[in-house]
Amino acid sequence: MIAGLSIRALAIRRGGRLLFSDLSLDLKPGQACALTGPNGSGKTSLLRAVAGLVRAEAGEIAFGGGEAEAARGAGLHFIGHQDGLKPARTALEELRFWTEWAGGTAGQARAAADELELVPLLDLEVRRLSAGQRRRLALARLLAAPRPLWLLDEPLSPLDARWRGRFAEIMADHLARSGLILAAVHDPLPGATRSLEIPA
Fold first, then answer.
1. Per-residue model confidence as pLDDT tens digits over 136-162
2. Rounded to two decimals, what is the model's pTM?
3. 99 inside domain
4. By three-state DSSP, how is residue 166 classified?
C-alpha cells in the first residue's frame, strides 16, 4: 500500500529530448501537489512515470517503503487527459469495467454514479455523453474503487463551474482521509495545495 510519494533527482527523456532532470518531490498523506508549467514541459510524462508507464532516465520514485510494482498495482489511480473510455460501450459498462479492474464492487460503482449524478446516463453509449459527463464518468472510478494516490491530468478542464466546485469537495474529502493527489494543471487546483513548476 502507498504511505507516501518520494521522487528523487528524476530525469525523463522523450523522443530524444530531455524534458527535465534533477526533479524531486515529497508527498505525505493528506497532501496535494499541483504540477504547473508550459505545454511540453513534462507534466504528463511525470505522472506517467509515477504510474509506471514511462521509464525514467535517472532518479528514483518510491511509495513510502512499499514495493513499487505492488504499490502501483493496488494503490494508485491514473486519470489521463484523455478519459480512456470506449465510445461504443454504455456508461454503465465502462463504470463496471473500471471499477472491477481497480478492485471495487458493483455496489461501490452504483454509489459513485449516484454521487456524481451519473445514474440517468448509465444506459447511454459513451459517445453520446458530453465532455463534462465523460469526465465525471472517468472520475467516478476514484470513488468506486478507493486508492490512496490519485494521479490526475487536467482533471477539471471539461467540467463546468458547478462540477469544478463539487470535485474540489471530493478532493478535499480524499485528502482528509489521508489520501494523496498529484495533478498536472493549467488552471489552479482548488483547495490548499503545494505547487511544483516544471520549466520548459
1. 999 999 999 999 999 999 999 899 999
2. 0.95
3. no
4. helix
